[in-house]
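Standup notes, structure subgroup. Blocker cleared on the pyridoxal-5'-phosphate input:
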Amino acid sequence: MKVPFNVLRPQYLMFKEEYDRAALEALDSGWYVLGEKVSQFEKEFADYVGARHCVGLNSGLDALILAFRALEIGKGDEVIVPANTYIASVLGVTENGARPIFVEPDEFYNIDPARIEEVVTERTKAILPVHLYGQPARMEEIMAIAKKYNLFVVEDCAQAHGATINGKNIGTFGDINCFSFFPTKNLGAFGDAGAIVTDSEELAERVRLLRNYGSVKKYYHEIEGVNSRLDEFQAALLSVKLTHMAELEDDRRRVAEKYLEEITNPLLKLPKIKEGFKHVWHLFVVKCNRRDELQEFLSDNGIGTQIHYPVPPHLSGAYRRFGYKKGDFPITENYANTILSLPLYNGMTNEEADYVIQEINEFKGVSV
Ligand SMILES: *Cc1c(COP(=O)(O)O)cnc(C)c1O
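Run returned:
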């Protein structure tokens, strides 16, 4: 049997007729960028998250870039970011000229609130928690620190649509919060797309200006903007998928729960879920000291896996100028060397999951 790490076609086929109808309708409408379908989706997504405003954008990275720009965070400012994250989170900060200050993760792979206060300085303007792999960061503790030092909070929700803490949605804690709808995300479009959500009318309006060349009305440019507009196709298709989010979330949870219950190999550490936190299983990440052997063993048996992420941002070539070296963030670096993401996607069958479980439980490791 072959089990890919991820495939997108099965979830398209789940609601194919609805997607096809929405796509043709968008094509037939004669209006393709920033129209009624975008406004409609923005309303629906704001409701889904429980935020007052949503502004549709071109990508998750644009959401992060424009969130910090709307807060006027830039040169000379510092933003506290998780060391264990996807580089896009950090690019949202550095693209504005601000300096990322990395903080080690907790046992849930998210930024460790206990280590945040020690890096706060006079230049600190914001904290950027990332809800990595689909589990919320510890927002209550993070918001208390932000309040104490008067810092903005920008949540990176790209991997956690629908995740909650004691019933409260992620994306409703911070000042301005960012989502990606890249096709592989839990709410994925059929191309690039993203959005910010916020309760602030003023911040929403600023991002609305920024995304469309800073124009208040056509050809009147009040501020220096960019082009990060959402198109009608993606909005229409996202509206369809949004109506099925509960079902899609349960479908991922079915696979994750099988893994949690049936993987018994003592060489692997399974993900832990914090009490009261709803994990939405963007990724199922295990930890194994013989990770590379495990990955090769699974690959030899037809099972695809990935590493999220093999090189932490502080050691990536992109940030060589900051001068970090190996050993600066040992917990993060240990994770990068030992974590592995197992196959998990909408439409994955129980037989496929059974096969992954069976092979993992047979893994013994070849070396001593
Ligand atoms: C995917 C992702 C992003 C960026 O989203 P794009 O739509 O790909 O630009 C940002 N942060 C995290 C944590 C992500 O997983």
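Discussed briefly. The chain has a mean pLDDT of 97.
Next: hand off to the docking folks.
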